[in-house]
Amino acid sequence: MVCKIFTNFADQIVCMTKITKFPSALISGDCTTSSLRLDGGSIIDQCIVTAGERGTFFLEQHLLYVVLGGSVKLTCGRQSWTVGKNEMILLRKAHSVSYEKHGSPETGLFESQLFAINDELLKDFLTSQQVNIPSMTEEYGAQVSPMSDRLVAYCWSLAPYFNDPSQINPGLLRLKVMELLFNVMDCSKNIFRQMLQLRQPVKVDVHRVVEENYTSPISLEELAYLSGRSLSSFKRDFQSIYGETPAKWIREKRLSKARQLLQSSQMSVADVAYSLGFENPTHFSRIFKQQYGLSPSSLANR
Predict the structure, then answer these.
(1) Strands 35-38, 54-59: parallel, antiparallel or unpaired by DSSP?
(2) Residue 98's beta-bridge partner residues?
(3) What is the pLDDT of residue 33?
(4) Of 12, 119, 213, 281, which cross-links 31 as Cys (Cβ 3.0–4.6 Å)?
């Protein structure tokens, strides 16, 4: 079982248009000062920021976002939510989420906790605790839910765990993770239904999945997961709809959008590359020139 919990994902430095991968970027970068590790996962130390921070992250794990002070506006595709003090939201992995944080009127500070929950952890909780798992016949979307007093108290109880990480027993951390999931299950029926659905993805329209996610740094396996299909079924259904492979379609769609942005906006080549899911501007420039016969920088400077 692997669990990753990130507390107060706040002080990382993120370009407005660059997509930062969550949680791997936090583990490898300089975003936090200390961490607790559980079976290869991490709990990242607490950070607090003032208002106004913005950025975008790509979810490599399911994300439970808890706000303890201030508010945050989250945007994923065409949907957006504002999560206020003592509220939470569960977001599925393999999505890009933009955020804008706002401080509390009283203190000017934004305080939050981010819990990254992987499939193994969720499976372990649902099976070991003998939770009834009904068949899912419809898709349950993300929704802001109020936190119970017990869940709020639980979140604040994590603070002492970061004072001396070397003295925290892994068994105790595992119990704290199970406590979190029990509290969430008791607190919000909507989020519990979402948790069940994370293990049983509902089959959804291929066209919708790729149109909403082609600008993210997303793999074909993750697109298949979002569509509720196996990789082979996803490729087969995609081919029947578009008449070409997903990789080729996504590449050409991104490049076409990049050309449009370079011609019609003031965005730099790097900003265009990052905003459309390319790993780096150098790779983007190379394949752009292969496609159109000129460099993106020359097009942007016209």
Answers:
(1) unpaired
(2) 56, 75
(3) 43
(4) 12
CA distances from 13 to 18, 25, 30, 55 (A): 10, 11, 9, 8
- Contact by Cβ (8 Å): 68, 122: no
Q: What is the pTM of this model?
A: 0.73
**Between 231-242 and 206-213, two packed helices, what is the crossing angle to 10 degrees?**
90
In sequence order, what are the residues at sequence separation of 6 or more whose Cβ sits closer than 8 angstroms to the Cβ of residue 227? 201, 203, 204, 205, 206, 209, 234, 237
Residues of the chain with pLDDT under 70: 1-19, 25-52, 129-140, 199-202, 301-302
